[in-house]
Amino acid sequence: MLGGTLLELDSDEVQALSSSGLPLFRGRALHELGRTVLVLWAVEYLAPDEQAEFIDALYTRGDNAEREALLRTLSLLPEPDRFLSTAVEACRMNVQTVFEAIACENPYPVRHFPELNFNQMVMKAIFIGVPLRRIVGLPTRMTPALARMAQDYVQERTAAGRPVPDDIQLITSGG
Fold first, then answer.
1. Rounded to an integer, what distance in angstroms lies between the CA atom of residue 104 and that of residue 124?
2. SS3 of 139, please?
3. Which of 50, 56, 69, 133 allows an S-S link to 35, with CB 3.0 to 4.6 Å?
4. In DSSP terms, which residues pair with 29 in a beta bridge?
5. What is the pLDDT of residues 138-171, one digit of tens each?
6. pLDDT higher than threshold 70 for residue 112
7. Hey, is 119 helix, strand or coil?
């Protein structure tokens, strides 16, 4: 049984994962890594045209911990762009840990989300208080549309006398 023990990596392992773009499991529970291995193994035995349906079914039927592990696995799957609908659906979740599994410390959105979906994910992160520094590759996906959306949010919050998150300046000031 893998349990909730956190995956501990030495500095060489952290560097190897980071340089390969796979820092997904650092500090995560071992059961999550186990789930990832099982998903990767299962997908190998499916025909390519069955894989997206399988992943979507796992996401739909899974509990939140299973969803979180699955979302962190998407970028490791063959032809990961095929799983875009599952990833985008996760951004609509009202469970913050599930949203964070796709939006934070995960390279999938920066690599595969269309501009509209990426921008919506970033704005949701702002709305629910997720630090923007946790979004992998955000500086590379800055667009005038995202800057406008963030500036509109700042204006709305300011007009309502509500606080504005400090890190929104990562978007409104260009970094």
1. 12
2. helix
3. 69
4. 6
5. 999 999 999 999 999 999 999 999 999 989 998 9
6. yes
7. helix
Hunting for tokens 């890190």 — which residue is that? 167
What the block records as the tokens of 145 is 């549309």
Amino acid residing at 125: A
| Length of the chain, in residues | 175
Tokens of 13: 């392992």
pLDDT in tens, 44-78: 999 999 999 999 999 999 999 889 989 999 999 99
Cβ–Cβ under 8 Å, residues 39 and 62: no
Residue 111 sits at the vertex; the CA angle it makes with 7 and 164, to the nearest 5 degrees, is 80
Contacts 24+ apart (CB under 8 A), 150-157: 150/122, 150/123, 150/126, 153/123, 153/126
117, containing H or E segment: helix 115-128
What is the predicted pLDDT for the residue at 120? 97
